[in-house]
TrEMBL record, chain A:
This is Radical SAM-linked protein. InterPro entries: DUF2344. Pfam families: DUF2344. NCBIfam families: sam_1_link_chp. Residues 4-188 form the DUF2344 domain.
TrEMBL record, chain B:
Residues 254-476 form the Elp3/MiaA/NifB-like radical SAM core domain. The lineage of its organism: Bacteria, Bacillati, Bacillota, Clostridia, Eubacteriales. SMART domains: Elp3. It holds the Pfam family Radical_SAM. InterPro entries: CHP03960_rSAM, Elp3/MiaA/NifB-like_rSAM, Radical_SAM_N2, rSAM, rSAM_horseshoe, rSAM_sf. This is Radical SAM family uncharacterized protein.
């Protein structure tokens, strides 16, 4: 038995694939290429595929991580040759002997967000706002939990890093490292909503494009790419 | 607004993005013949259709042809498209449909006609063929409903009658001359009439008498009097589908499909497909096994279905299933059969299939009494039914679905009550024979659909039941079926009434369809969108009477709108079969001896099969 860890990108039209569709696609590509999938025991045997963090439909990613259990190892060079529909590429692959699960370990995600407003926003001091925002103690928003309760969350607890990248004409681009994992997640669009509200910006948004750049866990106060996760013992 | 902005705002954007496993994307230049295969329903329905998969693959094997796909956008997408003036586009290259050379619609059911016009509307293409200029795509259509092309004949340039694999390629040879401007559009259409199987309605003008009855078509110049259907003579050696597009999202039939034969020898009198696809042509076990291997290897599907009109009747079904099960069992790849006939032989096959996966069981006795089953020539006996219940329940199944039709010719209350009797026999048998370990309770589901008389069947002259008659029969069954273990589902009669009108309609219905579209009718095959009142309004506005088409008795010598088509089966044979039906006389399976339908003479010019 072998656990194969894969880092992949999901861009172009493939960003409209939902999480279940993406899982199904990986399974199909593995089957077409005769990868020795390990099936679960039981009445309806299914192969074992785990994805670190679901991505909203419409977001692209440069480097997401998944794992699949195989009966035996196949050469990594063959894995990297697997051909996916245009928009999905395998970036790295490695066999791991790691008990920790991707889903329980992932803590942060890096996003590049492009907002297109209906009007010119080039006069707005986004750069200063970002700096002052990060100095604040607390900016809260309400979130409905799965049980239907309302939970108040301090958005600053969920932001690791925030930088304004570019602002011209109708466009503002920023980069943010946000919580993403079992201890809470900050959706980039939610952040935009909270941020704009805080600075009382009443500009209408035409569209938001979100690109995830990578997934991370923290180790000794630094962020490490999830692909490099190892057991710590 | 660009396309991506739209995609972010709709549910299931994967319906529109293309790029699935085994799709094509070819470089586009001026020489490339651009073909759009258009399915006038939502993606999930269209992608479950095997014919599309075959023709998509076949056309794309032609170097100078790029076949793309287009479906009816779902209502949320359509609203966004109209709001932002986004024209209908192909999935592969996202090109406007109006940039295609040829748009080919598949006509799978009558209630998709408004969707065809709606797609043309969304593409900005003129709907009436006479209004389309040379720069607009040629609009062609094929599929089972093309056997009575008349209701949509005003919108379509060329109909393809019968199986399209060969005739499409023959047509492309003519089209290539048009593409390089050697011939004009009119010349192209005239050339098309010389190809067997192609019907160009503009060269045929329907003539009616004072009472409104169709009496003939006035033909233009040298076009043939009747258009003969096309079929693949040697199905075992013809074009073999070796892979399929694998959709991203869950479609209706999310599995590989392998055709094992075309045609059917049963001779059920209500069944249009059974008449249209004659004669029977089987693939060999070796060919089927190769088809399965090719498709499974290239799609990654975990289930495949052996399709045909009646797969249990494949002559070597036992060997085939045993071979396939033993080959695929260890890979967790399941076999399924779409339609099962009630007899003990099927049960052995079921045992094999069950080794891998327990699929749902569905059986179609079609009618509640032996008498009525004889009328429709459905070769299922009371004895078959009880022995099947015996076998399946003793094997450990506890759920079964039974399909029936209401509104069959000569139907009486006893026949309706017979449906209830069969359902009760099922639950009773379960109690008698269930194995000890089976702790679950039995569930028998009875589904009734409303019978629609179709062209080229022995029932093509008979009146369809009226809406009121259907409603009465359904309500009778609702009261009659009171066994708690029996669930009764019924198909709404309004849609069947409209289907009945279009199935045997003529060219005067074209304007009604366009009117209905303007009134807001679309996705008429979908319960949640079907609006019978709007349709009634469309008929009233255009002063066309539905009853003329569905509940009227036609005389045997009436000239029928589809008499322009030669489906191979002799009209006199159909008349004879109708009379035999009324007398309750059964006609044998034609494997047991020729029943004289005429297809051997008109279409293949010889015996249907040498060894039968």
């Amino acid at each position: 038995m072998a656990t194969l860890r894969i880092a992949y990108s999901k861009e172009k039209y493939m960003k409209y694939l939902g999480h279940l569709e993406l899982m199904k696609l990986f399974e199909r590509i593995f089957r077409v290429n005769k990868m020795p999938l390990k099936f679960s025991e039981g009445f309806n045997p299914i192969p074992k595929l785990t994805f670190a963090a679901p991505l909203s439909v419409g977001y692209s990613t440069k480097y997401d991580v998944m794992e699949v259990t195989l009966d035996r190892e196949v050469p990594i060079s063959d894995v990297l040759k697997l051909s996916f529909p245009d928009g999905i590429d395998l970036k790295d692959a490695i066999y791991v002997d790691c008990k920790a699960s991707l889903m329980s370990k992932v803590e942060y995600a890096d996003y590049l967000v492009k907002i297109e407003f209906q009007n010119d926003v080039s006069q707005l001091p986004f750069k200063d706002w970002v700096e002052s925002f990060m100095q604040l103690e607390s900016v809260t928003y309400d979130k409905k939990t799965k049980k239907g309760k309302i939970k108040t969350i301090n958005v600053l607890d969920q932001i690791y890093k925030l930088t304004s990248v570019y602002c011209m004409e109708n466009e503002w681009i920023f980069k943010g490292t946000f919580a993403s994992g079992s201890n809470g997640s900050l959706n980039p669009e939610k952040f935009v909503e909270v941020f704009l509200k805080h600075y009382k910006i009443e500009k209408t948004i035409e569209s938001i494009e979100v690109e995830r750049l990578g997934l991370y866990f923290s180790e000794n106060d630094a962020l490490v790419n999830l692909f490099d996760l190892k057991d710590t013992e | 607004m660009n396309l991506e902005t739209l995609l972010r705002q709709v549910e299931k954007p994967t319906r529109y993005i293309g790029g699935e496993i085994n799709t094509f994307n070819k470089p586009i230049d001026d020489q490339m013949i651009r073909f759009a295969f258009a399915f006038p329903d939502v993606y999930e329905v269209g992608m479950s259709h095997l014919g599309m998969q075959i023709l998509y693959r076949l056309l794309n094997t032609q170097e100078d042809v790029f076949c793309e796909r287009v479906f009816s956008p779902w209502v949320d997408m359509e609203a966004k498209m109209r709001e932002s003036q986004q024209k209908l586009f192909t999935l592969e290259s996202k090109s406007p449909l109006s940039h295609m050379d040829i748009v080919g619609f598949t006509l799978q059911y009558e209630l998709s006609y408004t969707n065809i016009l709606n797609m043309l509307d969304l593409a900005g293409i003129e709907k009436y063929a006479k209004d389309r200029h040379d720069k607009e795509p040629l609009i062609i259509a094929g599929g089972p409903c093309a056997y009575n092309p008349e209701p949509i004949a005003d919108f379509i340039d060329i109909f393809f009658i019968g199986e399209a694999e060969e005739v499409l390629l023959e047509f492309l040879d003519v089209y290539r001359r048009y593409k390089v401007n050697q011939i004009s559009k009119d010349e192209l259409l005239l050339e098309a009439t010389k190809i067997e199987g192609l019907y160009v309605p503009k060269f045929y003008v329907p003539i009616y008498d004072e009472s409104g009855l169709l009496i003939k078509y006035e033909r233009n110049r040298s076009v043939p009097e009747k258009v003969k259907k096309r079929l693949i003579r040697d199905f075992d050696k013809g074009y073999q589908l070796d892979t399929m597009i694998v959709p991203f999202n869950d479609i209706v039939h999310d599995r590989a499909m392998v055709e094992i034969f075309r045609g059917c020898t049963k001779g059920c009198r209500f069944c249009q497909a059974g008449m249209l696809y004659r004669p029977i042509r089987e693939k060999s076990v070796q060919t089927i096994e190769k088809n399965v291997r090719d498709i499974i290897d290239s799609t990654g599907y975990e289930e495949f279905s052996l399709t045909s009109l009646s797969s249990m009747d494949y002559s070597e079904i036992d060997t085939l299933i045993r071979n396939l099960v033993s080959e695929y069992e260890s890979d967790h790849i399941g076999v399924s059969l779409p339609s099962l006939r009630l007899d003990s032989f099927s049960v052995d096959v079921l045992k094999e299939i069950q080794k891998i996966r327990k699929t749902g069981l569905t059986f179609a006795p079609e009618a509640g009494t032996q008498r009525l089953r004889d009328v429709i020539n459905k070769g299922v006996s009371d004895e078959n039914i009880s022995s099947t219940f015996n076998s399946i329940f003793s094997l450990g199944w506890h759920r079964v679905k039974l399909y029936f039709m209401i509104g069959l010719p000569t139907e009486t209350v006893e026949d309706l009550d017979g449906i209830n009797d069969i359902a009760n026999l099922g639950t009773h048998t379960f109690k008698q024979v269930r194995p000890e370990y089976m702790k679950k309770n039995v569930q028998v589901t009875v589904s009734t659909s409303c019978f629609v008389p179709k062209p080229f069947t022995p029932f093509q002259w008979m009146p369809q039941d009226s809406l009121e008659q259907f409603k009465e029969k359904i309500s009778h069954l609702k009261h009659k079926i009171n066994n708690k273990k029996v669930v009764y589902n019924y198909h709404d009669p309004e849609t069947s009434v409209l289907e009945g009108v279009f199935a045997r309609g003529d060219r005067r219905l074209s304007k009604v369809i366009l009117r209905a579209l303007k009134l807001g009718c679309k996705f008429d095959g979908w319960q949640e969108f079907f609006n019978f009142e709007l349709w009634q309004k469309a008929f009233e506005t255009e002063q066309v009477d539905m009853a003329f088409y569905n509940t009227r008795v036609r005389s045997f010598d009436e000239f029928l709108p589809w008499d322009i088509i030669d489906a191979g089966v002799d009209k006199r044979y159909l008349e004879l079969e109708y009379k035999r039906a009324l007398n309750g006389e059964v006609t044998q399976d034609c494997r047991e001896g020729c029943t004289g339908c005429g297809v051997n003479i008109s279409i293949i010019g010889g015996e249907c099969y040498g060894d039968a």
